[in-house]
Amino acid sequence: MNDRLTPGTVALLLIPPMLWAGNAVVGRAVVHLVPPLTLNFLRWAVALLLLLPLGYRVLQRGSAVWRQWPRYALLGLLGVGLYNSLQYLALHTSTPINVTLVAASMPVWMMIVGRMFHGVAIRPAQVLGAALSLAGVAVVLSHGKWAQLWALRFVAGDLLMVLATIIWAFYSWQLTRVPADAPVRAHWAGFLLGQVLYGAAWSGLFAALEWGFSDWRVVWGWPLALTVAFVAIGPAVIAFRCWGAGVQRVGPTLAGFFNNLTPLMAALLSLALLGETPHFYHAVAFLLIIGGIVLSSRRGGA
Asked: Radius of gyration of the chain from Cα atoms?
């Protein structure tokens, strides 16, 4: 793991925010079709089926997926079960822009978790990079008019997203641990399958509780089927693959800055779906966020 951003690493870390922005927009669009925890379970059940042909060898007897089951169960709980469930719950009372905006606090939580639980020092350049990147998010939120920030209102869903973001920080730092499961980690599909196997079980438990203690109903049909296919293939399998590889290359703190592109991409996606065009402040926000990423990748001081 190092702090150098190569073109390949940048590409890996750009893909997740694009797909997660789409996940937020789509998740909001289908709130009337499927309850949030059920959507999360359907998403990861399909992802599990997609990963099985690619990584089934890691499920053989004696594999680290079974020998170190507490580690994989924890990864599945944090990254698959809790984070995504809380995000879909948040989208029932919040908007895609707000949800992704709250998630933009991720670099801060990455630094805090890394310092408190992993003994990783926080460099001045990272603090300044976080401030610059968050300023870019604020530009998106305010539409380039700072007075609009005072009119911002947070709802219960935004608080759920704060909790989800903290959980994702813990998950990302867990990815940097390299125990005696190198054969599993060597194959991306197998390593992800090990997490999703337990994560789908957690998601199924949460969905069962949702059905047992609520009167939610699912509206089956092509809109829901296409939604599940998208969130399983893109934001789940592809995004998690790229995120895991990127975190292993540069660490969770620097990778977390790329997440700040998600609100911008969510805004642009929402505009595209509404047939509108991007504005100048989107370009300003993009430059500020990229500036924060570049600054935080510096090895030296501020």
From this structure: 19
Residues 177, 65: Cα–Cα separation, whole Å: 15
Q: Is the pTM of this model over 0.90?
A: no
Provide the token pair at 232: 């399983």
Instruction: Name the residue among 247, 241, 240, 17 with its Cα closest to residue 114.
Output: 247
pLDDT per residue over 69-124, tens digit each?
999 999 999 999 999 899 999 888 877 777 777 777 777 888 888 888 888 887 88
For residues 123 and 125, give the distance between their C-alpha atoms in angstroms, rounded to a whole number: 5
The residue to which tokens 């949702």 are assigned: 210
Query: Taking phi first (over 0 means left), then psi (-120 to 50 degrees means alpha), and beta for anything else, what does residue 143 get?
Result: left
- 28 pLDDT more than 90: no
User: For residue 236, what are the contacts with CB-CB under 8 A and spacing of at least 6?
Assistant: 43, 44, 46, 47, 196
Distance, in Å, from the CA atom of 171 to the CA atom of 148, rounded to the nearest integer, reads 34
CB atoms within 10 A of CB 185: 17
- Per-residue pLDDT for 130 more than 80? no
Backbone phi, psi, residue 211, to 5°: -70, -30
The Cα–Cα gap between 250 and 265 comes to: 22
Instruction: With cut-offs at 50, 70 and 90, classify the pLDDT of residue 6.
Output: confident
Q: Give the integer Cα–Cα distance in Å for 252 and 259.
A: 11
Confidence of residue 277 (pLDDT cuts 50, 70, 90): low
**Cα angle, residue 96 at apex, residues 77 and 211 outer, rounded to 5°:** 50
Q: What is the DSSP string of 70-107?
A: HHHHHHIIIIIIIHHHHHHHHTTTS-HHHHHHHHTTHH
